[in-house]
Amino acid sequence: MPVASTQVDVLIVGGGPVGLTARALLERWGVRTLLVEKHVDLSPFPRSRLVNVRTMEIYRGLGLTDRIRAAAFAPEYGRVRFRDTLYDHDFATAAMVGVNAPVPESPAIGVVTSQDRLEPTLLAAARAPVRFGSELVGLEEDAEGIVAVLADRQGGEGTRVRARYLVAADGANSTVRQLLAIGTAGPGELGSFTTVVFDADLGHWSDRQPAGVYFTPNGSFGPVHPGGSWSWFAPTPEDAAGADWPALVSRALGPGADVRADVLRVQHWAMNAFVAERFHHGRVLLAGDAAHAIPPIGGLGMNTGVADVHNLCWKLAGAVQGWAGAGLLETYATEREPVAHRTLRQAVANARLMVQVLTRRREQAEGAEGMPDRRLELPWSERYFAQLGLVLGVAYRSGAVLAEDGAAPPERADGADQERPDHDGVEYVPTAEPGHRMPHLWLTRDRSTLDAFGEWFTLLTPDPVPWERQTTAAGPLRIEALPAEHADLCGLGPHGALLVRPDGHIGARWRDRPPSGSALGLAVATITGSTATALGRPKPNPAGRVRSG
Question: The pTM is what?
Fold first, then answer.
């Protein structure tokens, strides 16, 4: 029988980037956590390769961007290239906008880096306890919280952990999701694939034209670490157990390569495409691949999971610390489920476009004598791989977003009218409408509006004085002066204000002065589902601090 009971506020199951990010975010709020991971260490495989611009904004808030960039590739690797073989010229190429160079819509820049380089930085970002080799095998819930039964995979004693809430970030084959009998919707398993990590001297084909990914008809290649290994990703062969992986990699490189690959690791995995039927079950919240398995084309999966917990953790803090009502946690699923469905549709469309490119190239070759030495027109715009509309343009519609002038949100079905995006996720038009991510605007020469947000609500206004009289009952809130030149861009008059949630999304907008002296406190209370007088004050970071690294 398991012994050694432990009590925490939040139990995080899963030690990948999503679970580790949740641990760091909750620690900033002062929430006691325990993270458990069934594997005995961090993943040795590169896996996710892209940290997009929105995720880097979140890591900017945690002060991690300098460390992440130090282990990442240079910006010129923020590009995909299509080749007949790795040593051929490009027949098509596209930039990863927001990764290959800064964009004016953000103070951050995304990076190409491997998950095995990202995870140690995330692990070091918090001091909360982590148990590797600890597998969840049972789960019970009562009126006060959940009790998780953990087995030690290294032969030690099992334990029972009591927590008020559980965050399931345990991957596409989530044990938590299975124990709760939560179904999934979507295409399901798309196929079996293998990633091979190998050493080979390929620099003379790639150094002058770097890329994060090289797509070829024989699989996809990508550099794993700066100055280090490579990966090859392709469908798993039928006789995988007896496969000669060095020979297969060499053959995939092309007949003229004359390169012998030194294989370091081989990982077989299933490409899944689904969204969980529920993200919220009692005191359990699903996030990352446990909530939505996204095909890897476009690098959307891990980044969507990080956005999940960025949305979730401030709500968990409110529930644990008592300044939010029960309804606030319900808005997690309302806000994030539609995003997951849209992201899945986009990832599936990405995969189809990859097939379309390679099919066009094959048809082009069949219509010429020998392989044509000419470029191929891509079936998308140069900005396609940015998908900034999908990454930065998410808009939430829930009880945690008020209508204009701080009015309570209208009644609507969960997830209804959740987003009003462009259809392909490419274009992003900054807006300060409630529900949207607050646009990046410079408050000072090196301080963005996004740097003003943290473990508190933020009121941005050109005229702070009348709003400061309302702060007594408003709880975890700071007031920031918005430069007057930004007022029109935000749809504000000279005395208007934006109330920004801790996750950087706009919770309310008053185009001019508030209608009453209690408007601000009532707005925060409505968003949090609490009463204004019940809200506590966090321990804020020093005002005006630039949290860029």
Answer: 0.91
